[in-house]
Amino acid sequence: MDFMADRDVQKYAEDGYVVLDGLLTPQECDQLRQRMSEVVDDMDVPAHCRTTFSTDQDEQLKTQGNADYFITSGDKIRFFFEKGVFDDKGEFVVPKHRSLNKVGHALHAHEPLYRKVTHSAKVQGIARKLGLVHPVILQSMYIFKQPGIGGEVTPHQDATFLYTEPLGRVMGLWIALEDATVSNGCLWFIPGSHKTCDVTRRMVRTAKGTYPLTDFVGKEQNYDDDNFVPVEVKKGGVVLIHGQVVHRSAENISEDSRHVYTFHVMESQDTRWSPENWLQPTEELPFPPLYAK
User: Fold this and answer.
1) SS3 for 152?
2) Which of the chain's termini has less CB crowding within 10 Å, N or C?
3) CA 48 to CA 52: how far, in whole Å?
4) β-strands 170-176, 272-273: how paired?
5) What's the 3-state SS for 40-57?
6) What are 97-154's pLDDT values in tens digits?
7) Alpha carbon distance 38, 19 (integer Å)
């Protein structure tokens, strides 16, 4: 029996997203969380986070270090922090396990447990059910949404950051490793917006040798708050997210974290990956085929 039913395919086509319960067992969720806890235990805090800055030039170097660290993270495991977790000496003001916004962007390549989930029979079955012929994995992230400080994610389309020609070739798989609820910052969507909203803003690489390393071209549209609907997900469930559907998440004001493992796949057949995207395949890590183990 298919993990994804025909009615789920229809809902995904109509709304631009669909929730599928039970992609992972609670035990599998706990294993992924435990492994991430070990990764954070062994974490080297990046140098730009430790920079004590006092002048404008020092501030710029810190910002540039941050940008370099991000733009070269596509084939590595790197650490990205919430605002205000370091003091001016670069020391933690919160416990380090509570300091992180996310870890990315190549867990699917370097961490066996995450690779196993990414290439699992259920995930491959979803892709086949949706008719994907040669899907490849673009990136992966572990998102923490820390209690009390997990920041808001403003309305956006994933195609802003992961642009293809033609559009509609990218899908996110967003796996709740804990219950995602309205109070701890679940996703909110505008149903059907993948069919009605053009991609009006793009994050692009700037010309080589210029700074900043990335820039935004165009402007995000204004969206009516009333059009967003909350999408709660039980632990182990997955949300499939069309690359053009408009979605956001609120701050986490609760005392519960909202850990997520998420990754993006692209149908590579007859698709052009934009050379302007921040994320580019590398010699070390070409985008791996989803249907390979």
Assistant:
1) coil
2) N
3) 9
4) unpaired
5) HHCCCCCHHHHCCCCCHH
6) 999 999 999 999 999 999 999 999 999 999 999 999 999 999 999 999 999 877 788 9
7) 29
Which structure tokens are listed for 15?
Answer: 């709304």
Q: What pTM did the predictor assign? A: 0.95
Q: Minimal CA–CA distance to 159: which of 129, 127, 201, 122?
A: 201
* Identity at 62, one-letter amino acid code: K
44 touches 74 (CB < 8 A): no
Residue-wise pLDDT tens digits, 150-179: 778 899 999 999 999 999 999 999 999 999
Strand, coil or helix: 59: helix
C-alpha 233/C-alpha 177 separation (Å) is 10
Give pLDDT tens digits for 42-93. 998 888 887 665 556 666 656 666 788 899 999 999 999 988 888 888 889 9
- The amino acid sitting at 228 is F
Buried b (16+ CB within 10 A) or exposed e, 209-247: eeeebeeeeeebeebeeeebeebebebbbbbbbbbbbbb
d(CA 201, CA 87): 34
**Closest listed residue to residue 142, CA positions, set 35, 241, 230, 43:** 35
CB 172 within 8 A of CB 243: yes
SS (H, E, C) 81-118: ECCCCECCCCCECCCHHHCEEEEEECHHHHCHHHHHHH
Q: What angle do CA 97, 100, 103 make, to 5 degrees?
A: 110
Q: How many residues does the chain have?
A: 293
Half-sphere exposure of 49 (CA within 13 A, CB side): 21
By the 10 Å C-beta count (0-12 exposed, 13-18 middle, 19+ buried), 27 is classed as: exposed
What gap in Å lies between CA 164 and CA 59, rounded to an integer?
Answer: 34
